[in-house]
Specification:
Blueprint: H1 7-27, E1 44-60, E2 79-93, E3 98-106, E4 119-131, E5 134-142, H2 150-154, H3 163-166, E6 173-182, E7 189-196, E8 210-218, E9 223-232, E10 235-236, E11 239-240, E12 243-254, E13 257-272, E14 277-279, E15 282-293, E16 297-307, E17 314-328, E18 331-344, E19 354-365
Antiparallel strand pairs: 1-2, 1-19, 2-3, 3-4, 4-5, 5-6, 6-7, 7-8, 8-9, 9-12, 10-11, 12-13, 13-14, 13-15, 15-16, 16-17, 17-18, 18-19
Amino acid sequence: MKPLRSQRKFKNILTLSGLSCLFLLTMIPLTTVKAQSTGQFKPGGHVFGQFFGDYYYKLSGQSNSFSTAQYTSHQKNFNAVDIRRLYFGYDYNFSPRVSGKMELANEGNFLSDGNFAVYIKSAQLKINDVIPNGNLILGETGTPTFATFTEHIWGYRSLAKTLPDMRKFGGSHDLGIALQGNFSSEGIFGYELMIGNGRGSKVENNKYKKIYLELHAKLKDGLLFELYSDYEGNSTNGINTARTTFKGFAGYQIPNFTVGLSAITQTRKNAVQNNTVNSNPSGLSVFAHGSLIKNKLNGMIRYDFYNPDKSSNYNEHFFLAGLDYLPAPHVHLMPNMWVNSYGSKGGVPSKSADVVARLTFYYNFP
């Protein structure tokens, strides 16, 4: 949670957010009327949004700065009510082939005075069928690192980020150009190719670009597969500091049950020891979730193994388990236990685990 630099930036954000929200509200009367009885297309759109947060209590662990996992900065017995995500956006269909999307967000970002900050999460134009079964997306959009496939299979972003997101292997959104689609009309085998700034929603600050490539399969028997890679060139004081990522995913999904396994590795050129030695973080994640009482109660469990670097003196182990109660459609109350532990390696003693009990609340309107 990094504060913004100045009150001037704060005012600019509020002005932009206010104008954007005003625009979205003026568009509400245009809520989608896609077709008349004759089947003729009519332009239209809809408002969407989501919100989730928690009451949490840290049962164990001390404040530290060596982990990127949530809650590691808090002392034992710290507790609070927290908002972790707030999205508000609008989709509009200009024609059967062309649509636009705008989305404002807060994801735990704060201003220097402690108030929540809002930023642009999505601002994109989508043109369908620029090639057979392929769509072109321009602007601020989700990346294939995890946001467009594996995060949906995991299904519980409201409880925890995916491993690549939590451990900072890449971002969920980027400013760029993407081509995504399927190799056939059946939609069994799909792909996404994207070229972006590599800076998320921030303004580009160098000449280098990030190239993303993702391939996936959704087989009819419920099996799911994905291969992913990205490359981001960079230079620091004339030294090559490029990053290369590889990820694989396999899963099985049927109605009311999902299981998945994901592995990722990254090479960060000259990233440590004054830009003289490579860093190689890696991780493995396995999860399962399913229905316990149809449309009323679900359960989920997940374990992640994370190695910050092959030369590091410790590993991290993340555990999550919980229940998902639906008092109404699109409304979730989720008691869950969040644990991040630190295993010893190379004779270095393990650090105390961060253990957090939470009641997570989540809703969305599609």
